[in-house]
Amino acid sequence: MTDIAPIRKAVFPVAGLGTRFLPATKAIPKEMLPVVDRPLIQYAVDEAREAGIEQMIFVTGRGKSAIEDHFDIAFELEKTMSERGKDISVLEPTRLGPGNCAYVRQQEPLGLGHAIWCARDIVGDEPFAIFLPDEFMVGKPGCMKQMVDAYTRIGGGNLISVLEVAPEETSSYGVIAPGKRDGAITEVTGLVEKPAPGTAPSNLIISGRYILQPEVMRTLEHQEKGAGGEIQLTDAMAQMIGNQPFHAVTFDGRRFDCGSKAGFAAANFALALERPDIGPELRAFAVDLLG
Ligand code: UTP
Questions:
Q1: Does residue 2's CB lie within 6 angstroms of at least one atom of ligand 1?
Q2: Contact 137/261 with Cβ under 8 angstroms?
Q3: What does pTM read for this prediction?
Q4: Closest residue (by CA) to atom 22 of ligand 1?
Q5: β-pairing verdict for 128-131 and 135-138
Q6: Nearest one of 5, 94, 12 to 55, comparing CA atoms
Q7: Which atom of ligand 1 is nearest to 108's Cα?
Q8: How far is the centre of ligand 1, averaged over its atoms, from the C-alpha of 198 (Å)?
Q9: pLDDT tens for each residue of 136-195
Q10: How many angstroms does the Cα of residue 79 sit away from the middle of ligand 1?
Q11: Cα-flanking dihedrals φ and ψ of residue 164, to 5°?
């Protein structure tokens, strides 16, 4: 078997406007909204760590400094808590040392593809992962770990995570044209972003996790605006099909679309119910409320 370059770097594009969550996201980024007591971005970073990824690259924009603060040392807070004998271990996962994180700015929200391209110098010439933190993936192992395992089995190339949705939902997402299928792994023969209703090539949607080869950066460099007038990552990936291996892995777990209000509320409810500290109280409340 040939050696496959390990996935060491992850890009988190977090420069979107978050308009669907206004006014909550006027002064704080969407990715800092909490599911129970952890912000969405923390779940994504934890998922990356579980998959063996070492360097987290955040593509931020104006008004996103809360993300940098979240992963920094909170000196006054930690000192005061320690002096008062309070346990600060809960803050441990929030620490990303200088060698483990980098921030780059997308000056204008020109689209997801453009956001990824902004990280090209830090990514360099190696395969890398992408996480859309508002796609909240709950699984054991996590979605990216499942993907890295599949990537190793397949022997490299490009890999995206997909999920089956109802056909009428496909027009809101990137959709794959499927080729040969082998268990959870499907060959990708085409990709289309937000297909017009009734035209989707399948009901398998791209679900916010990617492992891509560095060539995608060169494709993005020349990418024209696509759906919504934005530079679309899906369009750039579509151009790579045929030149490089391209597969999808069906995620074994639950996905919550935390970019939508209903998905976000559902994620909070589902995870809170599973928590031993608050689940029983919440369950009793829900039973009472729903009769
Ligand atoms: P979304 O379209 O879901 O995010 O982009 P948004 O624009 O923040 O949200 P709404 O639709 O206005 O509510 C998917 C991901 O791509 C990032 C977003 O931050 C999100 O993680 N993104 C999008 C960028 O980083 N830059 C962009 O120009 C666009």
A1: no
A2: no
A3: 0.95
A4: 16
A5: unpaired
A6: 12
A7: 28
A8: 25
A9: 999 999 999 999 999 999 999 999 999 999 999 999 899 999 999 999 999 999 999 889
A10: 36
A11: -85, 135
